[in-house]
Amino acid sequence: MDGVNALTMADLPNPAPTMTDLLNPEPSSVEPEVPSSVGERDRAARDGEDNEYKESEPPEHSGDFDFNDDEELELELENGPSDVEVVDASPQPTPPSLVDLFGLDSEQFMEEQQKVSWIKVLLALLEDGALPLDPFLKGRIVGLAPKHLVVNGLLMRYVHVPANVGPARTVTVPVVPVPYVETVLHFCHRDLLSSHLGLTKTIEKVRRHAYWPGWRKDVAEFVRECAKCGGGKGPRPWTSGRMQRMPVADLTGPFSLLAVDAVGPLPETERGNKYILVFVDYFTRWAEAFAVAALDSITFVDAMVNGVVARHGVPSRLLSDNGRNFTSEVAKAFYQTLGIRKLFGAAYHPQTQGLVERFNGSLIGMQRMHVDEAQTDWDVYLPRVLFAYRSAFHEALDDSPFFSLYGRDPVLPLDVAFLKLGKKWKSNEVAQCRRELYEGL
To answer: Are 85 and 146 in the same domain?
Structure first.
C-alpha cells in the first residue's frame, strides 16, 4: 500500500510495530465508544443507501444458509440440556490488543471455539460422527450440521452469496467465539480498510467473513453507537430523487462506459494536492481516484493513461461534464488517438452523472473519518479508503466492485488471521515475520 511503501528504515520504530500499525496510519488502540445521539438516522446520511437494513433477508437471498432461527437455535443450545460438560464460556485472557489480529494463532482460536458448548458438540458430530445422548440436543445439532463444516480443525459455516453481475457462490466463514466478536466488528467497520461503512455494507461485510449467533443485532448496535459515524458523516448535498439512472442496456462489459469527475478544491496537503480526479465504471462500479494538484488537461490525460488505460485498458465511452479540462484540444486529441467515444452531461445538472456524483459523496464521507483536524493528510488515506469502497457490498450488484471486476474476493487481514495460520504458526513467529516484512520494505 502507498502509505506503507513510503516508509524508510529510519522511520521504523523499535520494537517493530504491529501489523495494525502497518495497515492504519492512526493509532491501533481502540477508542472507547460513546453512544451516538443519532439513533436510527437513515443510513442514506451515512453511506448513501436508500433504506435501512431489515432483519429479514431480501427475496434474492432466500437460498442463504444464514437464517435467524438458526441463531435462536444456537442460543438455546448454549443454555439447553447437554450430555457434554459445559465449559465456562466467559471471556478468557486474549491477546494484548483485541484488534491486533496478527497476534492470534489458529490453535488459540480453536481453543476458544471448544469453550462454547454447542460448537464443541457440533465439532464432535462433524469430525467423528458422535451424537449427544440427550434427545433435545441431538435433534438440534443434527439440524445444524448441514450448514457447517470443519476446516483444519476450525468450525466454519456456509454462506450463500447471490450476484447480479457474476455467478452466485457459496463461501465459508469461521464461527467466531465471543472473545473475538469485537475484533471482527472493528475490522469490518472501524478499520481503515473498511472506513466506517454504513449499516448495510457493514452487515454484508461481516456476513461474508464471520458468523456468531445474533450477529446482525450486534452489528446494527455497533454501527449505531459508532461515535465517528454519528459525528463525522453529514447529509448529502443534493435533494433526494434528483439523480437519474444512466441507460446501461448496451453495456458490453467492464469499462465499456466510464464516468469522470473532479472533487475540490480541498485543503492543500503537504504534497501539494488540492483535487481528486475520479473515474467510475458503470458496469462493475469499480472506482479509481487520484490526488492531483491541478485540474488541467495534461493532468487529466496523464491520470487517464497511467491510472486507467494502463490498468484496465481503453474504455469504449467516457462521460463527463463540460469542464475545460475535458473539452480542450489536448483532450480531444487524446480521445481521437485511442478511439474513445466522448459523452457529455448537461451543464449545471450533475444528476445526469448520478453514479459518479454519488461516489464522490461516499468518498468524502469515508475520508472524513480518518483525516486530521487540519485536513491536510487526506491524500495519504485515499488508496486505502478506495480499497474499502471497492471491497464493500454494492446493492446494484448484490456483490462488491472488486468481485465484479476480478471474479474473486480480496483476502482481508481478517481472513489471514482466522484461516491462513497453520498449527505450526505461533504468535512469536508471526511477530518475527512482521519484523522481517518491515525490514524488507
So the answer is: yes
Number of domain units in the chain: 2
> What's the grid cell of residue 376?
491536510
Closest CA to 195 of 34, 399, 412: 412
Same domain, 221 and 332: no
* β-strand partners of 155: 150
Q: Are residues 428 and 291 in the same domain?
A: no
Residue 27 sits in the same domain as residue 168: yes
Phi-psi region of 35 (alpha: psi -120 to 50; beta: other; left: phi over 0): beta
Residues 281 and 335 in one domain: yes
- pLDDT digit string (tens) for 238-279? 444 444 455 555 777 889 899 998 888 988 988 999 999 999
Residues 242/235/23/185 CA torsion (nearest 10 deg): -100
Whether this prediction's pTM lies above 0.70 is answered by no
Residue 65's closest CA among 131, 176, 177, 143?
143
Query: Of 201, 215, 185, 218, whose CA–CA distance to 30 is shortest?
Result: 185
Nearest to 222, CA basis, from 187, 264, 271: 187
**pLDDT, tens only, 138-179:** 888 888 889 998 988 888 899 887 766 556 778 888 898 888
The residue behind cell 461503512 is: 197
Nearest of 308, 64, 23 to residue 163 by alpha carbon: 64
User: Which stretches does DSSP call E strand in 190-231?
Assistant: none
Residue 351 CB neighbour total at 10 angstroms:
14
Cα 375–378–382 angle (5° rounding)?
165
C-alpha to C-alpha distance for 266 and 23, rounded to whole angstroms: 25
Encoded amino acid at 73, one letter: L
Element holding 388 (H helix, E strand): helix 378-390
Neighbouring residues of 117: CB distance < 8 A, sequence distance ≥ 6: 77, 78, 82, 84, 86, 87, 89
**Amino acid found at 419:** L
Both 83 and 130 in a single domain? yes
Q: Give the range of the structural domain holding residue 426, as residue numbers without chain letter.
A: 2-233+413-439
